[in-house]
Write a structure and sequence with these properties.
The complex is a heterodimer of chains A (463) and B (453). By secondary structure, chain A is α+β, with helices and mostly antiparallel strands. Chain A is built from ten helices and 23 strands. In chain A, strands 1, 2, 3, 4, 5, 6 and 7 form a seven-stranded mixed β-sheet that branches. In chain A, strands 9, 10, 11, 14, 20, 21 and 22 form a seven-stranded mixed β-sheet that branches. A five-stranded mixed β-barrel of chain A has the order 8-15-16-18-23. In chain A, α1 packs parallel to α2 and α3 runs parallel beside α5. Chain B is of the alpha+beta class and 453 residues long. Chain B has ten helices and 19 strands. Chain B has a six-stranded antiparallel β-sheet with strand order 3-2-1-4-5-6. Classes of the chains: A alpha+beta (463), B alpha+beta (453). The interface between A and B is large, with 81 and 78 residues.
Chain lengths: 463, 453
């Protein structure tokens, strides 16, 4: 994308005021999307974006500028703008040696999505629409989409990092509306994969369409969710978002540095039930948050954050890891070239426990079973977090009984983590997520075994 | 709108593309170009300074009822012609939609507004930094219990144009800015958070003291907050929270949701769907609104539309597509998410018509209730198709007509349909927020509070 002698000159320009750190992040991104809605192809779109962001760190100040002009002139102008934004220092110039270029393994792609004809995508979505509508006469609307993205990135910085990498992702989503006497209800499923079109040989879109339609139809007769504190059982693979919110964000080093996290200063302490071992791992094959390198050019890794309930470590970006003179954790990520990197999760999951998943349900007298979670959000400073239940049921006398309408659950991170009293021997990763922070969205994965929280507040309307 | 030297090159690029249209083709070219700055201050120093420039082109082609779209993040003429070729190629994979067509000029005049501030445009960078530093300092000075998470000055300006083969040829530009502070307050039980912000056409209009006061009050009021008892009760949503509720209601009134069978208010026009105190308008022509605009995403004049009048549903917001399909006229409500997005129907600048009494008077009428000052999980616990509504909340208990102790870690729940009918009173304290909706305080009865069992 950019020659190394040009990069040398751009990094030097970026440090013209003597800043201690400069970085070039360039990317070329292409995406194709086919959307199906209302019984027809609703839109076929393609996009291309390329550009570079220049970051200059001068003491505590970061300057950032970006450009879609990848010529040397464009890059030098952005470098100067970033340098000006970061202000002056007397760090003195250090010669950068960018001779040790590393190439990422790239995403393993068996079937290149760009080689899949758009007509084939239309065919797949037409079939999804037909299957979802065939489930029940109550199904009144189906929306589905297939998209893929290819991103080629180059990262070079004044610490000598020089990395290129490629990442390919494919995404399928379907949502269904069903209509009944009590009004409309919705069901949704999605499948995300860091890799190529081969994922659709491994998973059946027909199954996902069926599940989304059945979910919507089941909910037509759902009763209002309970209001108040009850035990909550969460199905394997769907509840990773609980940990993403209850502690994931709170373990990001930027929140820690500002004392805006309930987990600040607690390394070595028991912060969760001893059943809980939490891992963030950007290297898991095919998962939605997987990359060879993070967006600061550091290799992704498997990082144990909580082990047997004890807080082991936070997640780090390059600058904070460097300042602390520790090895980076590969968690510096950004949405695109126009965005500053931040400390972000990759794939965050809880390892399997020892309980039989069926026992977890049968030993719960009265509670809520969440088969499918929606999104969530957290206030890292207070630790209070919410997550939505998209497909949930009442547990009565140890049995899953009636479906419940949607709602949020609320809890406090450290409290909920210590209230996890059963952890299943099963495990699976969940669907693709988009994690939002400070206006930037990045793809993330989550996973967990079936588990029980002894008490959480359920935000329904039934007294 | 007139062409000037600054935008004639953009028009020339758009014209060169639509001039290639075949007789059976409709082509729409949307171009945007803008810049923004974001200054974040922490502990008296600049934490980051982001200077951003972006530009791009989005092209829609409709041929024989089939639509194709493509975009690119550049205004390079050669790439633009590739984008057009891609959009044409995408047409061939699309389905026939009898209602698919570009907007046509509808004779509605553009309401002239001052959407561009030269004062903001020329505001010195050093002064932006100083403003953020000042807000951080006066926030800290107000209360020794307060820490500041971050303070931000954000501004952005951009120009955009829409040119179509159907005769639309419009250019607009606007800029905006705000100042915000995120606060932390600690007690033995943990940390509480707050925020404050200032908006204005340019920084000279900022009420910096007010931003600091809000930031301090919101965090310190929550110190010692506990979980309230679960019960069905009356809640008062403060203007910030009420505005977020308006945004949700607005999405149920989208013409696209209606024609695609996803609006719970479809077929209810002319009926009463809310309490008689509730009048909701979408008014992008009111310059006080942060998202005021003169044009919609298809280049038609943005206009004032009454959506709910004293509780009665008057109509929906439409793009030219949803209007054509619904058999109505467009309301000038096509929104697009920049050059990379196709237009769809949505609200520009919702405004809840204010009532007569102050928030304190609303509270004085309530024996038992909760003042809601913050909500979370609007994307995860609210379903705009079914109407289910459940969000996390923080606020203050109301007892015997007065504010009592702070509360947190609870939810409030109802359905969108019931919330509208259960509105008791609309306050007089309409606030202009850096959001797509502005509301005064709103009192609603029979809302389920879920806290301690």
């Amino acid at each position: 994308m950019i020659e190394s002698d040009v990069l040398d000159r751009v990094l030097n320009e970026a440090r013209c005021h003597g800043a201690g750190f400069a970085e070039v992040y360039a990317e070329d991104r292409r995406n194709t999307g086919v959307a199906f809605d209302d019984g027809r192809v609703d839109g076929v779109s393609s996009g291309r974006d390329r550009g570079a962001g220049i970051r200059v760190v001068n003491g505590v100040t970061t300057g950032y500028a970006h450009t879609s002009d990848l010529s040397e002139r464009g890059l030098l102008a952005a470098a100067r703008a970033a340098a000006d934004a970061a202000g002056s220092a007397d760090g003195g110039s250090v010669v950068v040696a960018l001779d040790d270029k590393r190439s990422g393994a790239g995403t393993k792609v068996e079937v290149d999505p760009q080689a899949v004809p758009k007509a084939r995508r239309v065919e797949m979505l037409t079939e999804v629409d037909e299957i979802a509508r065939s489930i029940s006469g109550a199904v009144t609307q189906v929306s589905a989409g297939l998209s893929d993205s290819y991103r080629s990135v180059l990262i070079a910085n004044s610490d000598g990092v020089f990395v290129t990498d490629e990442v390919t992702r494919v995404l399928f989503r379907v949502s269904v509306v069903a209509d009944g006497d009590l009004g409309m209800q919705t069901g949704a499923e999605s499948l995300g994969f860091t890799g190529g079109w081969e994922v659709f040989d491994r998973y059946s879109l027909a199954d996902l369409a069926t599940e989304a339609a059945e979910q919507a139809v089941r909910k037509l007769h759902a009763r209002p969710a309970p209001s108040g504190q009850l035990p909550v059982v969460i199905a394997q693979g769907t509840g990773g978002v609980l940990f993403h919110e209850a502690c994931g964000h709170g373990l990001e080093a930027d929140h820690i540095a500002k004392g805006a996290s309930v987990y600040a200063g607690r390394v070595g302490e028991l912060v969760a039930s001893p059943l809980v071992t939490l891992v963030d791992d950007g290297t898991v094959d095919g998962e939605w948050g997987t990359r060879s390198f993070d967006d600061e050019g550091q290799p992704t890794r498997r990082n144990v954050l909580i082990e047997d309930g004890v807080l082991v470590d936070y997640m780090w970006d390059h600058i904070r890891a460097r300042d602390e003179q520790r090895s980076p954790s590969g968690n510096g990520r950004r949405q695109d070239y126009a965005s500053l990197p931040m400390v972000r999760m990759t794939n965050t999951f809880v390892l399997a426990g020892e309980d039989d998943p069926d026992d977890i349900i049968s030993s719960t007298e009265h509670g809520v079973y969440v088969a499918k979670l929606g999104g969530g959000s957290v206030n890292t400073a207070s630790g209070d977090f919410v997550f939505g239940m998209r497909d949930a049921y009442l547990i009565e006398n140890g049995q899953i009984t009636e479906p419940l309408r949607e709602g949020n659950l609320i809890g406090n991170g450290p409290q909920v983590l210590s209230d996890i009293d059963m952890l299943g021997a099963d495990f699976s990763m969940g669907g693709p997520g988009t994690c939002g922070k400070d206006g930037q969205g990045v793809p993330v994965g989550t996973g967990q075994p079936t588990l029980r929280v002894s008490s959480m507040t359920i935000g329904g309307t039934a007294a | 709108m007139s062409e000037s030297d600054s935008n004639s090159e953009l028009f020339a690029l758009a014209d060169s593309l639509i001039d290639t249209a075949n007789p059976s083709e409709q082509i729409e070219v949307y171009i945007s170009r803008g810049s923004s700055t974001e200054v974040r201050v922490h502990n008296g120093d600049v934490e980051h300074f982001v200077s951003a420039m972006s530009s791009g082109i989005g092209i829609r082609v409709i041929n024989d009822g089939r639509t194709g779209f493509a975009h690119a993040g550049t205004l390079d003429a050669e790439i633009a012609s590739q984008v057009l070729a891609e959009a044409r190629e995408n047409v061939s994979f699309s389905s026939v939609d009898e209602w698919a067509a570009l907007a046509e000029p509808d004779g509605v005049d553009v309401t002239e507004q001052e959407l561009w501030s030269d004062e903001l445009e020329s505001y010195p960078t050093a002064d932006k930094i100083e403003l953020a530093k000042k807000l951080e300092q006066i926030t800290l000075d107000r209360d020794s219990l307060i820490r500041v998470d971050d303070t931000n000055f954000v501004d952005g300006g951009g120009e955009g144009l829409v040119v179509t083969t159907t005769g639309i040829r419009r250019y607009g530009r606007s800029n905006s800015c705000y100042l915000s502070v995120s606060t932390l307050a600690d007690d033995t039980d943990g940390t509480r958070t707050g925020f404050g912000f200032a908006v204005g056409a340019h920084p000279g209009e900022f009420d910096v003291e007010r931003a600091a006061r809000d930031g301090v009050d919101r965090a310190t009021r929550l110190l010692g907050a506990t979980k309230p008892a679960s019960r069905s009760t009356t809640v008062v949503l403060d203007p910030f929270v009420a505005s977020q509720l308006l945004g949700i209601i607005g999405s149920t009134l989208s013409g696209d949701a209606v024609v695609r069978g996803r609006s719970l208010f479809a077929d209810r026009v002319g009926e009463s769907i809310a309490a008689p105190t509730f009048t909701l308008v979408d008014d992008p022509t009111d310059r006080r609104a942060y998202t005021a605009t003169d044009l919609d995403g298809e280049g038609l004049a943005a206009r004032r539309n009454v959506l709910i009048d004293e509780g009665e549903l008057r109509g929906f917001v439409h793009s030219s597509y949803s209007a054509r399909r619904a058999g109505e006229g467009t309301t000038g409500n096509a929104l697009r998410g920049g050059y990379a997005g196709s237009p769809s129907a949505g609200c520009h600048a919702l405004q809840l018509v204010a009532g007569e009494r102050a928030q304190a008077d609303l509270i004085a009428s309530i024996d038992d209730g909760v003042l809601i000052e913050g909500v979370s999980g609007l994307h995860s616990g609210v379903n705009t198709v079914s109407g289910d509504f459940s969000v996390g909340a923080t606020g203050m208990s109301i007892r015997n007509g007065a504010i009592a102790e702070p509360v947190r870690e609870f939810t409030i729940a109802s359905t969108i349909q019931r919330l509208l009918n259960d509105i008791v009173e609309v306050g007089a304290d309409l606030e202009w927020l850096p959001m797509r909706a502005s509301a005064p305080s709103l009192a609603i009865r029979d809302v389920m509070v879920s806290g301690s069992s």
